[in-house]
Amino acid sequence: MSHTSSYLDKIFTVADPDARLRKPGDLMNFLTFTAGQPLPEGAAIGDIRKIPQNTKVKIDDIEIVRTGTSGSIVFGHAMSLNGTTEHGWTSTRNLAGKFVNETLGELPPAPGAGKFGPNAAWAGGSFLGQRTLVEIVDVKLEIERLALDTLEPYLALVKAAATSNVLVAINSGFRSYPEQKLLFEGFKKHLPGFNTAAPPGTSKHQNGIAFDIRVAGGDGDPVYEWLKKNGPALGFIRTVNREPWHWEFDKVKAAKAVAKGTFKTANVNV
Ligand SMILES: [Zn+2]
Fold first, then answer.
1. Best label site of 33, 65, 66, 243, fewest CB within 10 Å?
2. What is the pLDDT of residues 57-74, one digit of tens each?
3. What does the alpha-carbon distance between residue 96 and residue 48 come to, in Å, rounded to a whole number?
4. Which tens digits make up the pLDDT trace of 203-259?
């Protein structure tokens, strides 16, 4: 199966009772019935076309429409399961699961990309090199990037959690130098909405090992409890004080934690 366009291999169920179809090539507008088309019962020319709720579909193509600074809508091209009938373009938010954790393809580094470019990895204040990134739908239905070399462990974590009916999904993955700089400056200026952030060049989010996983609080939260119990065996470990959401994929540190019967590095005490 393809890990970098995960939706291609799956069957989705239309969950929204109002799953409207979009105009091909003009996805922010809706598709309507026009004269000469067969009309379903109760529909009139000019009505917006929809995919009936509970229809099972395959998504054979996607388009991402950016809305504002960080917002985006992922549209999917829905086909019948046997691939012979086209339903058409609709928002993937109409599908069960809303496309959370679906991967949307690879972003290879551009030729000649510099150390402040979107694919540049950093650690400890040094530029490490360029990484191939993968776009993925986060828990807020926005698009994050993960480093291709830590994608499989992350998806394995998601899959293992799903068998316990726990949704592991991220709020933040890979960050470029300029993105980390913005977060650090917001934190330094105490701007609303900005958490503690490491100086640019030093965040583990810049080398592909850090994942901010949505947890609704600390102890007692089902996602956090699942991560504490199962994360280390899958290579994930908590490393930062006061950040129960921040987990790093580090097989060596995680194996040590497993041996010690813990889920965190020794520096973490709150
Ligand atoms: Zn983090």
1. 66
2. 999 999 999 988 778 999
3. 21
4. 999 999 999 999 998 899 999 999 999 999 999 999 999 999 999 999 999 999 999
End-to-end CA distance of the chain: 40
CATH 3.30.1380.10: which residues of the chain? 103-260
Q: How far is the CA of 66 from the centre of ligand 1 (A)?
A: 24
| DSSP H or E run through 155 | helix 151-162
Instruction: Return the closest-CA partner of residue 73 out of 49, 95, 93, 51.
Output: 93
pTM over 0.90: yes
Return the closest-CA partner of residue 7 out of 62, 53, 44.
62
Q: Which amino acid is at 197?
A: A
Detail the DSSP E strand segments found in 141-216: 143-147, 170-172, 210-213
Q: Tell me the C-alpha distance between 170 and 181, whole Å.
A: 20
pLDDT in tens, 12-60: 999 999 999 999 999 999 999 999 888 988 899 999 999 999 999 999 9
Q: How far is the CA of 9 from the centre of ligand 1 (A)?
A: 30
Ligand 1 centre and the CA of 119: distance in Å? 18
Residues 92 and 99: beta-carbon distance below 8 Å: yes
Q: What DSSP string describes 95-116?
A: BTTTTTT-EEEEEPPPTT--TT
The CATH code for residues 103-260 is: 3.30.1380.10
